[in-house]
């Protein structure tokens, strides 16, 4: 069942129930009022009759019957019985409508003083009347023709009103639900038409200040983010394939040139060495791309454990020295931590080692003396900041944010030093994953300082 049908049904059930309850209460209250009123009319008829019979000496049994029959107050199918102290019937109105009575009923009336009841749709009332020290019991019964026909009429009006009302409610409910859901239906149609190729499309309705407007706005914002992510992804793939193509093209042209004529053993060795170099570049590049892809997965945070920052720096140094024995490292603490926990952060040691290794590799790569100065500081309680300083060429102010984009290489160094431009974007992602921050201080010709800060603890 769709929301529109559900809304219509719920709305109709609620309003119809209220209408039904209202009609029922009106009917029952009216019936109650009719009975009360009829009982009091019956009682006053009974008292008038018994008073005439008992207290007015001039009126005898037969005269009373005549008066009774000609009274304008006579009720429909009225029957009146009067009993004396010893329960003997001393008066019965002429009408031959049956009025069932018993000794126990009379006794009951004597104890209760006034009894009201309904038998076979006829209202009856029993009253005790005291005159000249004698207690008479009068029972009067009649059919409330006028009241009942009014009530029947009211019942018919209410049933007709109810049927009509429910019909109108269902119709109104349908229209109401349709109108309330129209913006959603429009939005649904728009959303269904959005494909991977039309992420620039936006859905209307965002200007409305209601929940649907908010939904449209948030959906459009999500589309914007998706579009941006898609564009970055596409750019990344094309950059990655370009980067991979270069060493692959070099490998294949070298192989073709080598195979074109017979070579000496030394000649083959030279080519193979060059191929090893290209293969190493390819491996580095693919490894970097792999880590870059993995570092974007936020689920990694679930596997974070406490790690010591200085230990990771030393292990990155050892690893770098294996492939670059000429690199020089100076690692120091700005002030020595009082507590080991000041050096501990919550993170992934593999990823952090990759990031620190990249900062140190860049510093050594771009410094003429291939050295890096690493300073571990504690700027505020609960924070740790690692500074990677070098005496390299520095980075142009305009390029200082761009170097963190994948595949971006600064103009100053790109032609001279080997690289792919993914190291820093990888560092930025890893630091971001650890909820840390990176700041760069660099002046052309004077060197660069990359500061990486984290919250300690864990
Ligand atoms: P790669 O070093 O492989 O080129 P990175 O992403 O590590 O890639 O660096 C991007 C660019 O940022 C580098 O090509 C270089 O131009 C610039 N860069 C990074 N670190 C330094 C540094 N310490 N000194 C000067 N330039 C740097």
Could you give the topology of this structure?
Elements: H1 3-55, H2 61-70, E1 79-83, E2 89-92, H3 103-112, E3 114-119, E4 122-131, E5 134-142, H4 145-192, H5 211-259, H6 265-295, E6 305-308, H7 309-323, E7 328-333, E8 344-347, H8 349-366, E9 371-377, E10 383-389, H9 411-414, H10 423-433, E11 437-443, E12 447-455
Parallel strand pairs: 7-9
Antiparallel strand pairs: 1-2, 1-5, 3-4, 4-5, 6-8, 9-10, 10-12, 11-12
Commentary on this structure:
The chain has 458 residues and is of the alpha+beta class. Helices cover 54% and strands 17% of the residues. The protein has 3 domains: 3-149, Beta-Lactamase, CATH 3.30.450.20; 244-294; 300-455, 2-Layer Sandwich (Heat Shock Protein 90). The chain has helices spanning 3-55, 61-70, 103-112, 145-192, 211-259, 265-295, 309-323, 349-366, 411-414, 423-433, and strands spanning 79-83, 89-92, 114-119, 122-131, 134-142, 305-308, 328-333, 344-347, 371-377, 383-389, 437-443, 447-455. The strands form 3 sheets. A 5-stranded antiparallel sheet has the order 2-1-5-4-3, with helices on both faces. It has a 5-stranded mixed sheet with strand order 7-9-10-12-11. It has a two-stranded antiparallel ribbon with strand order 6-8. The longest helix has 53 residues, at 3-55.
Give the biggest beta sheet: 5 strands, antiparallel
Fraction of residues in helices? 40-55%
Major sheet: order of its strands? 2-1-5-4-3
Task: Provide the CATH superfamily of the largest domain.
Answer: Histidine kinase-like ATPase, C-terminal domain
The share of residues in extended strands comes to: 15-25%
Average predicted confidence as pLDDT: 87
Using only C-alpha atoms, the radius of gyration works out to 51 Å
Query: Which CATH architecture of the largest domain is right?
Result: 2-Layer Sandwich
By DSSP, the count of extended strands is: 12
Task: Name the bound molecules.
Answer: adenosine-5'-diphosphate
**Unreliable stretches covering 5 or more consecutive residues:** none
Q: How many domains, as an integer?
A: 3
| CATH class wording of the largest domain | Alpha Beta
**Count of DSSP H/I helices:** 10
Shape: rod-shaped
């Amino acid at each position: 069942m769709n929301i529109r049908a559900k809304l219509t049904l719920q709305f109709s059930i609620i309003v119809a129930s209220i209408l039904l309850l209202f009609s029922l209460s009106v009917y029952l209250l009216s019936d109650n009022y009719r009975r009360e009123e009829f009982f009091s009319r019956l009682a006053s008829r009974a008292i008038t009759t018994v008073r005439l019979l008992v207290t007015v000496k001039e009126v005898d049994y037969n005269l009373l019957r005549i008066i009774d029959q000609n009274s304008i107050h006579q009720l429909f199918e009225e029957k009146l019985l009067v009993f004396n102290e010893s329960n003997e019937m001393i008066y019965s109105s002429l009408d031959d409508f049956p009025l069932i009575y018993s000794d126990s009923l009379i006794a009951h009336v004597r104890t209760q003083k006034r009894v009201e009841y309904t038998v076979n749709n006829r209202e009856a009332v029993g009253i005790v009347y005291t005159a000249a020290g004698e207690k008479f019991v009068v029972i009067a019964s009649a059919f409330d023709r006028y009241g009942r026909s009014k009530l029947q009429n009211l019942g018919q009006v209410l049933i007709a009103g109810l049927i009509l009302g429910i019909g109108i409610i269902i119709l109104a409910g349908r229209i109401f639900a349709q109108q309330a859901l129209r913006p959603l239906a429009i939005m649904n149609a728009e959303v269904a038409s959005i494909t991977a190729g039309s992420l620039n499309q936006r859905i209307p309705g965002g200007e409305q200040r209601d929940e649907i407007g908010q939904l449209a706005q948030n959906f459009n914002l999500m589309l914007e983010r998706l579009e941006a992510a898609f564009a970055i992804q596409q750019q990344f793939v094309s950059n990655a394939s370009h980067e991979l193509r270069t060493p692959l093209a070099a490998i294949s042209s070298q192989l073709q040139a080598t195979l074109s004529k017979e070579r000496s053993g030394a000649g083959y060795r030279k080519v193979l060495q060059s191929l090893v170099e290209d293969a190493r570049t390819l491996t580095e590049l693919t490894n970097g791309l792999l880590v870059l892809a993995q570092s974007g997965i936020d689920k990694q945070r679930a596997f974070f454990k406490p790690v010591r920052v200085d230990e990771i720096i030393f292990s990155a140094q050892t690893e770098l020295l294996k492939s670059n024995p000429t690199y020089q490292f100076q690692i120091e603490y700005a002030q020595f931590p009082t507590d080991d926990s000041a050096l501990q952060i919550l993170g992934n040691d593999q990823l952090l080692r990759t990031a620190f290794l990249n900062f140190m590799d860049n510093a050594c790569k771009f410094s003429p003396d291939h050295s890096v100065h690493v300073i571990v500081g504690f700027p505020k309680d609960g924070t740790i900041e690692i500074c990677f300083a070098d005496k390299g060429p520095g980075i142009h102010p305009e390029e200082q944010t761009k170097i963190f984009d994948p595949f971006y290489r600064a103009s100053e160094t790109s032609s001279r030093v080997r690289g792919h431009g993914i190291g820093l974007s990888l560092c930025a992602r890893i630091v971001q994953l650890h909820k840390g921050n990176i700041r760069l201080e660099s002046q052309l010709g004077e060197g660069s300082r990359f500061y990486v800060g984290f919250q300690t603890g864990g």
